[in-house]
Amino acid sequence: MARIPFNRPSVVGREYEYLQAAVAGRHLSGNGPFTKRCQQWLEQKTTCRLALLTTSCTVALEMAALLLNLEPGDEVIMPSFAFVSTANAFVLRRAVPVFVDVRPDTLNIDETKIEAAMTPRTRAIVALHYAGVGCEMDSIGALAARRGAAVVEDAAQCILASYRGRPLGSFGRFGALSFHETKNVIAGEGGALLVNDAADAERAEIIWEKGTNRSQFFRGRTEKYTWLDVGSSYLPSEVTAAFLQAQIEEADRLAAERMRLWQRYHAELEPLERLGVLRRPIVPEHCQHNAHIYYVLLPTSKVRDDLLTALRSGGIDAVFHYVPLHSSPAGRRYARQAGDLCVTDDLASRLVRLPLWVGMTDGQIGTVAEAIRRELDVAR
Ligand SMILES: *Cc1c(COP(=O)(O)O)cnc(C)c1O
Known about the structure:
By secondary structure, the protein is α/β, with parallel strands linked by helices. The chain is 39% helix and 13% strand.
């Protein structure tokens, strides 16, 4: 039987046509017509003040860290159940990630534990919306405002997802999206920085363009362009933007198809949850997720490890997610934890992510569900 890969990136619309147009247009460097179209779409969809395409979500987070003017020793609160870039972006500025435990239901940062982790050095809180399910942004936003900390949203997984009807990525001072080939809308490698405060827009653009006012120069707003600030080359080429533009045009259809597959897993696995042999994702009523991830939680880490082995030997590429950052060598070196991280350790050891990609068939979802039933010894 053919393997069921964990992810399969695909061409969904006019990608080849737009790639050809980018080449024919003789503008292959960044910030060209495709980049502008993608950014306009992002600004409209997320309601942010300014969207800047980047070569990854990782560098979008790095730009946010630069824009916050972090000093060595400044602290940034975040979950340990996170991707390495969530922490690395701040460690590069010599800031210290401070890990807080996650909620048992959504696996997002536990908003009730943030304040106890704050010190006079706390400068920012990172809200990572796992699986496109929003963190509790009402309380996080209120706490951050009261304590004078910035909110940065790691919205890598969040395209077209919202919290109380408002797009994820639009709550913090900055939001960072990813278009990596494992995400819902892809460009191979790619991302975007969402700037939500008009006061940050000009500097964000300067940092994006290697510390120069090149963008203003091209808009005719300055006589010559010159070096003004720190910065780097964060722009993707027009080739990347052309591919992304084609995906963006199909974003709603991709979202609907992913949701259909997600719901199918959810229905197939409902009886197993009732039997108590696994737990399915919990999505609070006020969170409109985007079906980015389908995961299950097993009763113990042993059952999880055995299930992963069984699925893989049956040709199904399921994976775990994440190795908690506080338990990694770099996490121990560069970060500290606030309070215990029992929920993080527990959930990360019991989680399995199932294959989910547009183009998967109902038959393949059925095959995965059947393999899970077989391994967990549940009759249909
Ligand atoms: C994918 C991901 C990233 C990194 O995105 P890149 O575009 O690959 O840099 C960061 N944070 C989270 C939560 C992610 O899922």
